[in-house]
Amino acid sequence: MRRLSVLLCSGTACQSSGALAVKQALVEAITAQGLSDEIQIVETGCMGPCELGPILLIYPDGVHYVRVKPADAQEIVSEHFLKGRPVRRLVWSAPAPEPRTIPFFARQKKIVLGNCGQINPEKIEEYIAQGGYEALAKALTRMTPEEVIAEITRSGLRGRGGAGFPTGKKWQAVREAKGHPKYVICNADEGDPGAFMDRAILEGDPHSVLEGMAIAAYAVGAEKGYIYVRAEYPLAVKRLEVAIAQARKLGLLGPRLFDTDFSFDVELRMGAGAFVCGEETALIASIEGKRGEPRPRPPYPATSGLFGKPTLINNVETFANVRHVILNGGDWLAQMGTATSKGTKVFALAGQVKNTGLVEVPMGITLRELIFDLGGGVPQGRKFKAVQIGGPSGGCLPESLLDVPIDYESLKDYGAIMGSGGVIVLDSSSCMVNVAKFFLEFIADESCGKCVPCRVGTRLMLQLLEKIARGEGTEEDLAELERLAHFVKDASLCGLGQTAPNPVLSTLRYFRDEYLAHIRDKACPAGVCPDLIHYVIDPDLCRACDLCRRACPTGAVEGQPGVPPYRIWLEKCIRCGACFEACPFGAVQKRPGRKG
Amino acid sequence: MTVEKTAILQGFPRSPDVLLALLHALQRANPQNYLTPEDLRLAAEYLGLPLSRVHDAVTFYTMFSLRPRGRHILRVCGSPTCHLGGAGSVLAELERKLGIKAGETTPDGLFTLEVTSCLGVCGVAPVMMVDEEVVGNLTPKRVREILRRLREEG
User: Fold this and answer.
1) pTM (2 decimals)?
2) How high is the ipTM of this complex?
């Protein structure tokens, strides 16, 4: 009889902070105490609060341990598992060891992420025990394809990849399209910087995606599916491979599912490092083994997609919603969310926010609730400055817009989008010119080069931003930047180029002062742009430890060990920041403005 | 053609759409982590594609290399989240300790340093991939530890 279950988050983020070493140490400690028969360790998918990893959840006690180190294993086993006394210093938000009451969880509505962190994603039995593949059985044996589509349409489900196209309508179009065979594709080429919900779903609950795809295939009349996943996600690839093999073995993929005439199988395809492949026509070209370049639409994939055949493409999170709609009915999903955007959305919190990680909440939540209630606000007492939402297609919003409820439409008027749900919080230490430049560098780099507006236009915009960041910009450059931005937006071939200027336009709109400071005052107020800052040593904090002088590559720091204060010769300083990073006392400080 | 390469080819159907997967497999089998001119020719012949078409695909995707790379590939995430979290000083430390710039390989053939687009592990930024393994919450100090470990492993 198992007395305790230890759920160990083994998503990529927790693995990267050492979850597997913790597991090893726990196994050793449990074995040493002779508890192997009483305690089982379950490796689960992502539990959400990545920043606190590695994370353990102990059942039935409901104790959540965070930032566990291998050295803690001994104490957890001997104190908690053996004597029933939870190790307080590792319990999240002591003294309430009941996970559901922690604000980070209490505010969430986990549907798509319901199984993530609760089941072992490499065991199909655990998925089935949670009602897995029941929706597929229901659809195949008790519903017609038309009824399935009607249910999806009634739910109001829209594409979770960002564009928000109504899912039911898309399915209907593929069902009606002439041509055989038809294909279903899962777009798992998650690439928006700051978005990682698809990875978590694939790693934590891969069967929910397979089941959603199978139901979609039944509805549109397809027999073959492809999952196109980034090669940068090896753990997701592995878990999908395991899931596909297990589903085939149990007859949940393959010929004649549930003794019906419907057959469906899935093949996995890996990308090879190209952001643009997240665009559906580029993705199709890549599955066909070609360069991942987009093509003009129409024809849409629904009529002419993979190998020229009618093709349904949905995103990972969209497919993961499907089984819940089929089991609970369309009306059930439609009662959550806003007038135009139904259900929940998974958001990825990253950047300068206390609780980084994944949260699933009903659509219509405000950015303020997301960042401050769930995210815990900005750490280290710094001040919130902006939030970047929607990845490189999205925009940066200031504090004054934090109370806008988020759905597919609401943020558009303000120059941002919900997009795939990546939320990057920026505090006072971030320079908005630098942030805009960074996103544009990314786009200029990832532009496939097929159309001129995107290939050349983003380059020209980047050159202007670089000029401004160097302190050589003029106010005319800002007007030119805006002119180019609208040109790239209007004339680019695909979504990548059409939305690429958004980070620049939104920062120009809300943080123009900062651009002007770079241009007029030759100063970077946040102290980021290296050409527009200088370093000084605070004589009161300097302890004359000599570390800064030794770190300096140009001999710009002068001083004698043990005789404070040191000082920096601005004429020699190249503003590399080596002294700033070397100083253990915070005596080396950045100041806005070019000097020397 | 080596026996090993024949075996790799025969693991795939002769269908042009498996090109990327085949190239991944050929590249993985090369201890220097790159695709040789012979690899491209074999892939083209096996799938019945013009060599130009294979070259076209290889040069489009950033994960394929036509030049020899190190035994270990270090991919530092260059996304905005990691940038905000201090990826710049992590990359600088790697460049300093390895004596190479991003995109280059150490003369001993042990390391190739690359900057990659978002790795989707933003919750523990800054991150990098050491071959297939993701390492998060990086600092210059952790970078030094990782390099030491990898050098010991050889």
Assistant:
1) 0.93
2) 0.95
